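Forgive a beginner's question, but would it be possible to get a protein, spelled out as residues, together with the matching structure tokens, please?
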Amino acid sequence: MATLADDGPLPSLSEIKGANAHVNDNGYVLLTATRPVGPYLAWMWLRLGLTPRQVNYLSIVLGIVLLALAASGAPQGALGATLLCFLWQAIDVSDGTMARSLGIKDNFGGFVDYSSGMLIVAFLPFCLGMGLSVNSDGSLNGLATLVGYSVSLPDYTPLIIGAAISIISLYMRLINRILQIRFGDSLSEDDSEASSGLSSRLRWVAKNLETIGGLQAVFFFIAAAIAQLEAALFAYGIFYVLLFGAFIVSVYRGYGEKRAYLS
């Protein structure tokens, strides 16, 4: 297969599309929705002389930009940041498409690609909470009034909620890596990490809500568009607490009786 360093022709658009023929997106909504755009972006990057790794780095830069926009508290900042998540996902699928069409295997590139996604998954709620603490949309106080809580909540309340979500997200992923080290396997995201006791439909919802490739960005984008982002962040926080509880139960059920050390 040709690489960017070869003198041979670059893969055609049809060849690039063919490289995605057997890719499994495991039911992640946004990932599946943006997958058809990947070959066109890959074709463009290749004609511009970019490598898959360079596109990886571009996705990290875009991730940092959208997080900064979310945290800025600027008018429409959260809406713009969550909209950029869709562009980020399209770019994210294009680097893998490039690598497959070129026959490139790059483990470090895969690491960078995964790290870029985790940057947004972990810190988007925190940055949205930071931005809302600067420029409130009032929906959390509206929700509090609706349930009979008449005292105005502090401006920093969304920041605390967003920080809690990000901490739980990071902690669950850290535990998953420790499981891999200690036991040789872990609770995979494909199994929704935490919801073995739920129906298949609920597992699908849970795994999609907790990651950028699923419904996380879609959920926050819709909430920002209707000026209900604070209330949505609060609801997302409740979801994450429940997810964490189910995760801990699954860890104990799956590994609590495993006493032998990994040899």
